[in-house]
Amino acid sequence: MPVKNRFAELLPEITEWRRDIHEHPEILFDTHRTSALVADKLRAFGCDEVVTGIGRTGVVGIIKGKSNKSGRTIGLRADMDALPIHEETGVEYASKTPGAMHACGHDGHTAMLLGAAKYLAETRNFDGTVAVIFQPAEEGGGGGREMVDDGMMERWKIEEVYGMHNWPGVPTGSFAIRSGPFFAAADQFDIYVTGKGGHAAKPQETIDTTVIASHIVLALQTIASRNADPVKQVVVSVTSFETGSKAHNVIPETVHLKGTVRTLDPAIQDLAERRLKEIAEGTAATFGGAARVDYRRGYPVMVNSDEQTEFAAEVARAVSGDCAEAPLVMGGEDFAFMSNARPGAYILVGNGDTANVHHPKYNFNDEAIPAGCSWWAEIVERRLPAA
């Protein structure tokens, strides 16, 4: 039976898994229910080994092929965690956890990889070993880093790794990918501005932190427009401006700014960090105040390896008939920790005409499940052909 037909037959069952996970979202590393569900299903499928607690709450299932003449092992990774968002979809299987929602489709990723794992454990039509990797804390917690640091790659001798993400706005079940830098490095910063508070009617007696911080917000935009090479991507966004004052007539003593920097080039990342500190400190000093900057490097640039990307695109074309070139994405993706540790490729699967990810009305499109499962299965059977 063709792989795509097999997963069309399994679609109702996989959809049921997905919607159950959607109803019970868990954030960051607190994926205890989801991890247990995944582990139970992998055991029921007949995986040769199921290990929990990798990277705190991650799960790894090992499936051995009919033969192992190649001695090779490849990894397939899906993320499990949700977001701290109140759901507004109105679907009957909406989140039962207030303030938590699968707003990025990780429920769909997990369900698709479970579907592929069931198929692979039943057929074992490959030579070698597959590690199905279910990761917590993709949404800012660095779960991928935790699993790599836990020795996952070495423990199972994983040689290369593949990941997938749904993508709204792309036709359902179609694919897109690009080689080289794909998702951006994602850094965070906090700027603490200090001046002299006082009565709003006597600004001459104060050092106005609100004015200082406002100038800093605007000046930071010159990093992209006047410091970075125009052909290099960099995004500097101030996302929070907190004065700590609730009164209309008080000039606050301090202001706290928060934000993020996104880059695709290490040299531009270095430039952005240096200039952010210089601009914040220099602007504050100009007005008689002071600024302290806390800059933290987050997820690195996610880079697709050339050989694995070409292969992943070939498989996508076999599954859907086409594979487009994906755009550069300035969002972060902690699959980067795995693809930094081993050669790998990360692909986008179309979610159709839906709300964007991280939106309270977003919902994973179950019609994408057969294509996603088929891609996983074809990756294995083509990369590890039966002897």
UniProtKB/TrEMBL annotation:
Residues 188-281 form the Peptidase M20 dimerisation domain. Keywords: Hydrolase, Manganese, Metal-binding. GO terms for molecular function: metal ion binding; N-acetyldiaminopimelate deacetylase activity. Its cofactor is Mn(2+). One of its GO terms (biological process) is diaminopimelate biosynthetic process. The Mn(2+) ion enhances activity. Mn(2+) binds at residues 104, 106, 139, 165, 358. NCBIfam families: amidohydrolases. PANTHER family: METALLOPEPTIDASE, PUTATIVE (AFU_ORTHOLOGUE AFUA_6G09600)-RELATED, PEPTIDASE M20 FAMILY MEMBER. This is Amidohydrolase.
